[in-house]
TrEMBL record, chains A, B:
SUPFAM superfamilies linked: PLP-dependent transferases, Winged helix' DNA-binding domain
Enzyme class: transferase
Keyword Transferase: yes
Protein name: 2-aminoadipate transaminase
CDD domains membership: AAT_like (cd00609), WHTH_GntR (cd07377)
Keywords, ordered alphabetically: Aminotransferase, DNA-binding, Pyridoxal phosphate, Transcription, Transcription regulation, Transferase
Lineage: Bacteria, Bacillati, Bacillota, Bacilli, Bacillales
Residue stretches making up the HTH gntR-type domain: 11-79
A Pfam family of this chain: Aminotran_1_2
Gene giving rise to this polypeptide: lysN_3
Enzyme Commission number: 2.6.1.39
Co-factor(s): pyridoxal 5'-phosphate
């Protein structure tokens, strides 16, 4: 007995001993009313200080797990034995259709599995090597010293006030008229969209969006039971004639657009098209959900105002923003900027479903932004990503025989191959050679896009980008000519 | 011009200047192609260093907001003007019924408003003065130095692996058989329950639970369209005969129980009743959602194993836990421990809806727990809350004429007054005297409980507890005799 006590680093010893003794009781190695070794005995047996044993015994006694008898030592208290009949439910029978759909559309579960030796173009997450951990620590310590106790207690469903104010100013600087608007803080973009979809009346059950578009958004539209009409992407944004045709023929609940560094095509919708989109949606009195995806990742060209700015003092644009995509994805913080009335209701839904977004995340993010670290970080990050972007574009043009490469910046390129090339089959061949990417079909609203692929380059170094692209190019040429 | 530039503390000056200039452009005070003052002029005009102006100009140029002409200075670039027709949608028309219900059931929006001079018994949040901010900082810095870059990048929908492993061990020490079980980390208890309700098949549309019970859970059952049958609470847990009668008469999808420090009654279900409940639910092959609410806040008596432990190697108990309630509510971290198969599906739903819970929150919480700070904190917190608890019980018994006071510990008491006393009216009278509390009716599954109230004492000092209880007692006596 007591010979299998193993010490692990970093955790207080008295807790380890306590937990070890509890395990002995629950698994039947220490029985009810059995006498424990004296503290002196146990400390010598386990070669730990007597104080450690004393603390562990005192805790166990205080928790009612053992009891002391004066002059006789410590004994095990009542040990609960669990003799209820155990039942084995079939949980799969209890899962609803929506959940099966979420599992079916779960890219992480069904995507290609790759290992660390491979070159993976699947991620569009930021490169953690660029993270500004030291300034993040400073921001944390700064905020904690200002109001650590408040940061750690319950916050408000609407969000952390200093962050909301910061973001209102931030949106105003993008040209957005914030009068009669308000902000709700969410656990990133995805929760923002999900709460919004849970709140809006589904009158027509139909949404219009770019085709292809963000997979997570498509998944949520489908889970909420919407039919989806996708509009072809031209090099400067959606095909306006096609959009107009759809709007004139069909009723929609709302549109979903990603005007900047569109996922997956990387296209930035031109200023002219933004105006045309807004004119059309004003005429049809339709709401737009604007995904502010990676708006900050501009490497060249001039500033583009979001659709929310083009809306002026109108209220039909719901802007969902997030710093997670380029700053710190591990912090789940996003925001919805929309009409005050709408935010009022979204707030109740947010409170019912997740109470509020982590105050810690919000407060540290606020401090980091306010201290100007974000500006410094984004300059550094942009310089690095721009180089990778230009390299990727150059090598794709040179090595991959393709019909079209799109991307005006951001962290990924989108490639259309010849229509006879199935990118899933190409992926299987590239996988053999140690290269993986995202097949484009998952981003399409219909069954098209079998011949497309997305290359995320943010987390690869230059050598890997070049080598990976060459392998994809060679595989295309070898199998399909070129 | 430039005379209204105001400097605020704490934010880098060049950013403040940049934002000021952007505002001048967007609001029409600086026009397209207008010449900006030279850096020398502007620095002297605003009494700031020339370097600050240089940095701001360089940034604006890099962002395409201004352009430089060699030998001539800086000029304003194209300024977007927004002339789209603005539209005014009626958002209330676009809100669905479920959202109106969430607003109607939103206690924060419709609860009593009180100010800081009043004595409020409404909160059951922990007292932030007890927070162990210094050790929390240590845990943060410790974790960041181990893997800061990983903590800040995307995590997994299922949760942060070290925390999951910690919690599996934690649950095992409570006597839970973790074979064929798994854990999903959620944004606190509330998201856990919401995701679960979104995942389960609604076969009968009916849930059975204690009456009264946790308001946030009732709200979610209602939002998910469940009918609710509540079972009367006796001093040692639900009335088993009544429970059995319901189960024999009616089909249910599942039950919801809070066996320890039940909210709002504070009752701890006895070990005998826990066994009986498990036997019944085994016989009826029904799942139980167990709310592990404040299980750690035991001030006396022996350790009580959760229902999940009584289930043995059966799989019908879904345990939802959270440290937020007593540790750091500002961190939104909870967990679901359940059958592996069920967790597999819950994971996909979690990913679809919020991607994952903040890795920062999870990682720092893990470090805090693993370093043994939680054990120290809970000892200190228990000593303080125990005193407040005993004081509150003593004074309630002495001063408030009532039929029943329940609470075996935790951070609140529940009081049943004479049936002819409406606690809403009592609240209005106490409000006039500077004391507020939660009326009990919101915790009931039916329209009963008009004569009940909940007193949360965690954030009040001893003087306030005594004074507040005396005022409530006097108000009862004065208005209803006693």
């Amino acid at each position: 007995m007591f010979k299998d006590f193993k010490i692990t680093e970093g955790r207080p010893l008295y807790i380890q001993l306590k937990e070890y003794l509890i395990r002995m009781m629950t698994n039947g190695h220490l029985l009810e009313h059995q006498k424990l070794p004296s503290t002196r005995e146990l400390s010598s047996l386990l070669a730990i200080s007597r104080n450690t044993v004393l603390t562990a015994y005192a805790d166990l006694e205080q928790e009612g797990m053992i009891y002391a008898v004066k002059g006789k030592g410590h004994f095990v208290s009542h040990v609960e034995t669990f003799q209820s009949p155990t039942i084995e439910l079939n949980w799969t029978e209890k899962i609803n259709e929506q959940t099966f759909l979420s599992e079916k559309l779960d890219l992480i579960k069904h995507g290609v599995r790759w290992n660390k030796e491979m070159i993976s173009f699947t991620s569009i997450a930021p490169d953690e090597k660029l993270f500004d951990v030291e300034n993040f620590k400073k921001a944390f310590l700064n905020r904690m010293s200002i109001e650590g106790d408040i940061v750690l207690n319950y916050g408000y469903a609407k969000g952390y006030k200093p962050l909301i104010d910061y973001l209102l100013n931030y949106m105003e600087l993008k040209g957005v008229d914030i009068r009669n608007k308000d902000i709700l803080i969410t656990n990133g973009f995805t929760e923002g969209l999900d709460i919004l979809l849970s709140t809006l009346n589904k009158k027509y059950g139909r949404v219009i969006c770019e085709n292809p578009t963000h997979h997570a958004a498509l998944k949520l539209f489908r889970l909420h039971g919407y039919d989806i009409d996708g509009i072809e992407m031209e090099d400067d944004g959606v095909n306006i004639r096609e959009l107009e045709k759809c709007l004139s023929k069909q009723e929609y609940d709302f549109a979903y657009f990603i005007p900047s560094y569109h996922n997956p095509t990387g296209i930035v919708t031109s200023s002219e098209k933004r105006k045309k989109i807004m004119d059309l949606f004003s005429a049809y009195q339709l709401p737009i959900i604007e995904d502010g995806f990676n708006e900050e990742l501009r490497y060249s060209g001039s500033h583009q105002a979001p659709l929310a700015a083009f809306a002026g003092n109108g209220n039909n644009v719901i802007y969902i923003g997030s710093f997670s995509k380029i700053l710190f994805p591990g912090l789940r913080v996003g925001w919805i900027l929309a009409d005050k009335e709408l935010i009022y209701y979204l707030e109740s839904m947010k409170r019912a479903r997740t109470v509020h977004t982590s105050t810690l995340d919000q407060a540290v993010l606020y401090q980091y932004l306010n201290d100007g670290y974000f500006e410094k970080y984004i300059k550094k990050a942009k310089a690095v990503y721009k180089k990778k972007y230009e390299l990727a574009v150059q090598y794709c043009k040179q090595y991959i025989p393709c019909k079209r490469i799109t991307s005006d910046g951001g962290l990924h390129l989108f490639i259309e191959l010849d229509h006879n090339i199935d990118s899933q089959k190409l992926l299987e061949k590239c996988y053999q050679k140690g290269v993986v990417f995202s097949t484009g079909n998952v981003f399409y609203t219909d069954s098209s896009g079998q011949h497309t692929l997305r290359l995320g380059f943010s987390r690869l170094n230059e050598k890997e980008i070049i080598q990976g692209i060459k392998i994809i190019g060679d595989t295309v040429k070898h199998n399909y000519g070129g």
